[in-house]
Amino acid sequence: MGALGGLLFADALSAMWPVALALDPHIYAIIGMGALSVSVIGGPLTMTFIALETTGDLWLTTAVLIAVIVSAQVTREMFGYSFATWRFHLRGESIRSAADVGWLRELTVRRMMQQEVRTVPAHTTVSRFRMVFPLGSTTQVVALNEQKDYAGIVQVAEAHAPELDETSTIRAILHYPDTTLLPTMTVKEAVAVFDKAEAEALAVVQSPERRRVIGLLSESYALRRYAEELELRRKELIGE
To answer: Are 159 and 133 in contact (CB under 8 A)?
Structure first.
């Protein structure tokens, strides 16, 4: 498309001023090809070197360099990034560097979750729960139903509230019964779930159909691991 645009541009100017302008359409085809390629995939210097390697003409390469710089600047001013990067953003990716997407997908919930989870049956009474989990022993406890599947999360501090009836079960104070994490989720997807549920910690289940609890992950730890990985990749890029 870029080459065709360059050809049409040269032919149009030659038709309007056939004597004053005798433009070589092949030259403008190369210029148009480089300019459009930069708008789509970026890399102005790469396109310039391709033109130099293909033609061996230094003056033509200079013209291509000017064209790709103008094209890259116009694209950046209008969209902020190349069209290829724009398409990645539409698919939910956030690209900051060449290595960003790869390591982000590798940092999954399975790698970050705490595998030793403290659980309690959902039919446990409040008095019994207070005996097993006194204040300060832990922050959250995962409740399981009769089938040993995930039922919700109990906040230990809330379970010790004096206004609670000690004879009632902890089912009444379960949080996030329908919100869980999957081990295959990336850290980005996990943080989005945390934000939507406004939860400090969530249980990790095997699958949406099989809700066996296999771990627990807190939002603070997920964000800390993300920051650590980001700092590690930054050091790798600068050679530290």
So the answer is: yes
